[in-house]
Amino acid sequence: MLQLWGLLALVLDSLAIAAQSLVGAALGAGDAGHAKAVAWRVTAFSLLAAGILAAALGLGSSVLPGLFTDDRSVLAAIGVPWWFMVVQLPFAGIVFAVDGVLLGAGDAAFMRTATVASALVGFLPLVWLSLAYGWGLAGIWSGLGTFIVLRLIFVGWRAYSGRWAVTGAA
């Protein structure tokens, strides 16, 4: 599941890579308005792509896991993380797009702090609690989901604030 999640993240990150270049070029040229327009457009496309992927994975939930394994115990356990992944994808699509926007704007320090805070407050505690209380895959994927939601709050706030749209050298 984690490998599939990683693959989907890289697919969505392809839009973030474009955002890095386009936002960086716009801000370097002194055009904050264009950079903001690119940010919204890339985020919308990434959300759309993530929604399509989530819908496909949701609709294929009874068939697609069988393409990866025929082990009955794995197939029996895959349902919980599968649905966590499906639900998280649209949120992740937004997060990954805004990551590209912020990196293109040279706002890596904010992203570092937001990512570390999200991991320390959301992901790690739920993984540790999952281990301590035997929550299994549901606990681990809850941690990942919480991490994504916290990052969405942080980077969403930063994107909406416009504080990243600084023209000139970053």
UniProtKB/TrEMBL annotation:
Compartmental location: Membrane
GO cellular component: plasma membrane
Membrane topology qualifier: Multi-pass membrane protein
Transmembrane domains' residue ranges: 42-67, 74-98, 110-131, 138-160
Key words of the record: Membrane, Transmembrane, Transmembrane helix
InterPro entries reported for this sequence: DinF-like, MATE_fam
GO molecular function per UniProt: antiporter activity; xenobiotic transmembrane transporter activity
Superkingdom as given in the UniProt entry: Bacteria
Family stated for the protein in its record: Belongs to the multi antimicrobial extrusion (MATE) (TC 2.A.66.1) family.
Record's protein name: DNA-damage-inducible protein F DINF
The organism of origin for this protein: Mycobacterium tuberculosis
